[in-house]
Thiol:disulfide oxidoreductase (Maricaulis virginensis), 233 residues
Amino acid sequence: MIDLYTAPTPNGWKVSVMLEETGLPYEVHPVDLMKGQQKTPEFLALNPNGRIPVIVDREADLTIFESGAILIYLAEKSGRFMPSDTKQRMAVLQWLMFQMGGLGPMMGQANVFYRYMPEKIETAIQRYQAETARLFGVLDGQLAQNEFLAGDYSIADIANWCWARTAFWSGVDREPFPHLNRWIAQIEDRPAAQAGVKVPVDISELLGGSEAKNKAETFVRGARTIVTTGKDD
């Protein structure tokens, strides 16, 4: 059994989608970021960096933090979504690192300045939205020539998809990227992806409708306390 400590964010979804895809048994432990549970001594004993997600593999007596490291571990444990051939494996890992070092941080900062910060600093908003759009263009170019990012469906697709699908929240238009949109829709059709992004709770209702708008505004107010106090995931 794997214990998953997580919250409804793209980094958290990366692991829950992977667990759903592999069928590995897991137990969810929600972490309330707005209450600062990721900064408690109990959580810091699992991840001294105070970020979600974290897994504890009871059978292996192993605790792992950092979503990319977790994806690699789960791929190796399950024997799925990571090729054994060195060339293909490196292709997967480079697109995983693309997300870890580029897409995730840029979209995260776009979220902070576009959604959460009470003071709207236009130069910062434009900077991070433009860089996100540039990275979308890189993905779009790769997906114009390939069904998935690195051969077959892999942890690279899971990691990038969990972020790219949230472009609306970053204020970035996905319309100019047809191949990216095809790929996002294709993965959205996977039952494991649908289930994984509802862990630990389903927040998809934040993305549309008048009632959802009110809920989104409430969510933003709560999230604002996280980013202004340094308690983000």
Notes: Residues 81 and 153 are 6 Å apart (CA to CA). The chain has two domains: 2-78, 86-196. The radius of gyration is 17 Å.
